[in-house]
Amino acid sequence: MNSLNFSGGPGILPESVLRETQQSIEAVPEVGLSILGISHRSQWFADVVAEAEANIRALLDVPDDYCILFLQGGATLQFSMIPMLLLRHTGKTAEYLRTGYWSSKAIPEAVLEGDVKVVWDGESCGFRRLPTAEELEFSPSAAYLHYVSNETVEGTQFHQVLGLDDVPRVCDMSSDFLSRPVDVRRFSIIYAHAQKNLGPAGVTVVIVKRDLLDSTPKGIPALLDYREHLKAHSIYNTPPVFAIYVAMLITRWILKDVGGLEKMNEINQQKARLLYKTVDESNGLITTRAALENRSLMNVVFGFQNTEIEKLFLQKSALVGFSGLNGHRSIGGIRASIYNAMTIPAVEKLSAFLRDFVAAHCIA
Ligand code: PMP
Fold first, then answer.
1. What is the model's pLDDT at position 284?
2. Residue 318 maps to which CATH number?
3. 265 lines ligand 1 (CB under 6 A)
4. 274-321 tens-digit pLDDT
5. Is residue 6 part of a domain?
6. Which of 228, 88, 82 is nearest to 168 (CA)?
């Protein structure tokens, strides 16, 4: 029996893409070779990269003065590459929001390159809520503002754009990239690894405003220099051919099969509503971690009355074919990740299972 993959990532991929990938592992029809053994210097692969870029441009309406790069090193390497580009030797201060596990990981890497100010720190509230506009004060002279749009571990998500328009805005969208429309023009850098909504692990998409690269400081190793990747059309060294190929298929799927990001967002909203409704109708027997207004549409993080019940839930749900529902190792609990490829019927199935579980095992 195939399980339903509610994992936080690497996550579920669309069935049609998996079928096409399966065929390409045997042989890509146009090439006659396995995707696992096609040269990254072939014209066919250059076309794959070009289509992936064109599809992302179309989906997000990315203007020409932004470039789209496919890099390695995960979102984690961007925690370093961004301050190397925007903070090193500037004498300025970079502003960071500390809203959870992943934004916290970005901060020490920036500190290596210059001054960093944490403009808001959610640790004292257990990262259960995000700041309101009134709580935030940004400096107009900051080098840039960095935040994470969706905290994958805690299940919180910003539903608005933050910061000042005159300060470069940098956003880690790893866990909600291509899940909803975004006004790219309001950002200087958007980055996202593939392994949630965009494909298997191995490739990270970086959308960067071209003019920022003009002031790249000296002394940056070539592999960490965005300009080298831009010049080489993301084929500076051997890229993860397979990961980029699958990511391209997924952008094609969102564009052609789903019908774009408005449609994708509608589906994602509907899935999240189903699960949160089940939580809200449980009379407090299931509780979400995130404050109501900050709930994530991608990662529904919740818990039961105690860890014994949570253990039982994980056991019983695994027996009927739900996989990946355990919360992140840092906080425990339950996390249902409902990325783009998760279907509405699958979420309905989980909601029904949750309702039955509560009725059978939770005491009001
Ligand atoms: N940022 C966010 C929001 C994430 O969810 C993750 C990993 N799940 C990362 C960064 C780190 O990504 P990677 O493992 O690709 O370096």
1. 93
2. 3.90.1150.10
3. no
4. 999 999 999 999 999 999 999 999 999 999 999 999 999 999 999 999
5. no
6. 82
Spatial CB neighbours of 258, under 8 Å, sequence gap ≥ 6:
264, 267, 340
- pLDDT one-digit tens code per residue, 310-349: 999 999 999 999 999 999 999 999 999 999 999 999 999 9
> Which of helix, strand or coil describes residue 102?
helix
pLDDT tens by residue, 150-189: 999 999 999 999 999 999 999 999 999 999 999 999 999 9
Residue 56 has pLDDT above 80, yes or no: yes
- Asked whether 254 and 178 are in contact (CB, 8 A), the reply is yes
> Is the shortest distance between the CB of 174 and ligand 1 below 6 Å?
yes
Cα 3 to ligand 1 centroid, rounded to whole Å: 24
Can you give the pTM of this predicted structure? 0.98
Q: What domain count does the chain have? A: 2
CATH number of residue 197's parent domain? 3.40.640.10
Q: Which atom of ligand 1 is nearest to the CA of 76?
A: 16
Cα-to-centroid distance, 210 and ligand 1 (Å): 24
Residue where one domain finishes, among candidates 258, 290, 314: 258
Check whether residue 241 and residue 304 sit in a common domain. Answer: no
CB within 8 A of 145, min separation 6: which ones?
94, 95, 96, 97, 119, 138, 162, 163, 164, 167, 168, 169, 170
248 shares its domain with 278: no
Does the beta carbon of 217 lie inside 6 Å of ligand 1? no
Ligand 1 pocket mutation, candidates 81, 109, 152, 174, criterion most atoms within 8 A of CB: 174
